[in-house]
Design brief:
ten-stranded mixed beta sheet, 11 helices, 20 strands, 31% helix, binds inosinic acid
Length: 424
């Protein structure tokens, strides 16, 4: 059986968690393949909101396996907090949560290094979530990292001490003012490691292979978005992992030929949190209204998200890189009430009109070209069926489908599980 992929097509925060939760009933295994606690996947059901950072979004469904793949980086302290919250909500993860031995650990000093590196950059900072993501992936590719499987070995504390010591000299090298009490951070870390040890560690690539052989269905869950991909995103304002489809192959051990559907999730407009270019960003009242109506505040950091019109040049690029087979449009309800809606269909770049993403999308290099649409006034949040959609929304959807040449199968009209409209 093929492995289906679900990933974000913009700068993250598209609503992946909600759709994974909605689709979980169709799958046996939900597997996260990259990123770490920089992610904040929000799920709303039965009037309650839940935010997951590292644990896959299928965790609220009984009898489903949730796997944290080798491509993920785990902060045991944040992981423990997630487990505690789930337990308080009556979700016991012991039998359903599986962790790859090859996933890397975020040490307290990785977080400190992240803070030191960002501080030293001054105005050029990435706007990192400061969860230690970059330094942990640097240690992974630098072949210095500590993996989950290491904590089963007798000498792992020696390895830990050597790496933490190296990190401290690197922090000193940055020569910035970072206040910390390492002893306190380490106590918390080792306590969390003991909790992590009570969970099931697996060789996840073998587990996935066997699941596939037995005909089990698997959904691979991405984090962040395609434009934050370390290779194809708006470098250097990106995260440190491959957020695109290829990341699912390396982050879980899936062969490319085993990939089935690729679900691409995008918002009906665009948002970005942190620094970096954003061609269709709005600095006026329209952008402010989108932020307020869409509750555009980071689920992990609480920072307000920058808002702007939908960018089809960037979206087309993301569909292309990922091989998207089905689209899912989120937050359609947020666009209700705008007189006019705009969609960027091309850029002016060096006095030419282009429809592909150039090397630089800095505002000094490109100007977006827009197509305008009539807006709609109707509140979409209570709608149950696409037949209730206003004509102007149908026009908007048809235009996007035609431009991207991919069907939009789901339109989300609110944060709740039930506010999900399947299009036929
Ligand atoms: P880092 O991955 O925490 O180092 O952050 C790098 C960049 O990616 C920053 O601009 C963050 O705001 C952004 N970022 C990281 N994770 C997410 C996410 O889950 N949603 C949206 N933006 C993210």
């Amino acid at each position: 059986m093929a492995v289906d992929l679900l990933l974000g097509l913009q700068w993250g925060d598209e609503g992946k968690g909600k759709i994974v939760d909605v689709l979980t009933s169709k799958y046996d295994v939900i597997a996260r393949f990259q990123g770490g606690p920089n992610a904040g996947h929000t799920l709303v059901f039965n009037g309650e909101k839940h935010v997951l950072h590292t644990i896959p979004s299928g965790i609220f469904h009984e009898n489903k396996k949730n796997l944290v793949g080798n491509g993920v980086v785990i902060d045991p302290v944040i992981f423990k907090k997630e487990l505690d919250k789930l337990a308080a909500n009556g979700v016991d993860c012991k039998s359903t949560l599986l962790i790859s031995r090859k996933a890397h650990l975020i040490l307290p000093t990785h977080r400190l290094l992240d803070a030191a590196s960002e501080t030293s950059k001054g105005k050029a900072k990435i706007g990192s979530t400061l969860k230690g993501i970059g330094p942990t992936y640097m240690d992974k590719t630098g072949r210095n990292g500590i993996r989950v499987g290491d904590i089963e070995l007798s000498n792992w504390k020696e390895k830990y001490n050597a790496l933490a010591k190296k990190h401290q000299s690197m922090i000193d090298f940055y020569n910035v003012n970072i206040q910390y009490d390492l002893e306190e951070l380490e106590n918390e870390f080792f306590e969390a490691i003991n909790v992590l040890k009570t969970l099931t560690f697996i060789d996840s690539e073998e587990y996935i292979y066997q699941a596939k052989v037995k005909g089990k269905s698997i959904l691979a869950e991405g984090a962040q978005g395609s434009l934050l991909d370390i290779d194809f995103g708006t470098y250097p304002f990106v995260t440190s992992s491959n957020t695109t489809a290829a990341g699912a192959c390396t982050g879980l051990g899936i062969a490319p030929s085993d990939i089935g559907e690729v679900f691409g999730i995008f918002k009906a407009y665009t948002t970005r949190v942190g620094s970096g270019p954003f061609p269709t960003e709005l600095f006026d009242d329209i952008g402010k209204t989108m932020g307020v109506v869409g509750h555009e505040f980071g689920a992990t950091t609480g920072r307000s998200r920058r808002c702007g019109w939908l960018d089809l040049v960037a979206l087309r690029y993301a569909c292309q890189i990922n091989g998207v087979t089905q689209l899912m449009m989120m937050k359609g309800d947020v666009l209700s009430g705008f007189e006019t809606l705009k969609v960027c269909t091309a850029y002016t770049y060096k006095n030419q009109t282009i429809t592909h993403l150039p090397y630089s999308i800095e505002p000094t290099d490109i100007t977006p070209i827009y197509t305008a649409f009539k807006g709609w006034k109707e509140d979409l949040t209570q709608m149950q069926n696409e037949s209730e959609f206003p004509e102007a929304l149908n026009t908007y959807i048809s235009f996007l489908e035609k431009e991207l040449n991919i069907p939009i199968k789901i339109v989300s009209v609110g944060p709740d599980r039930r506010q999900t409209i399947f299009r036929v």
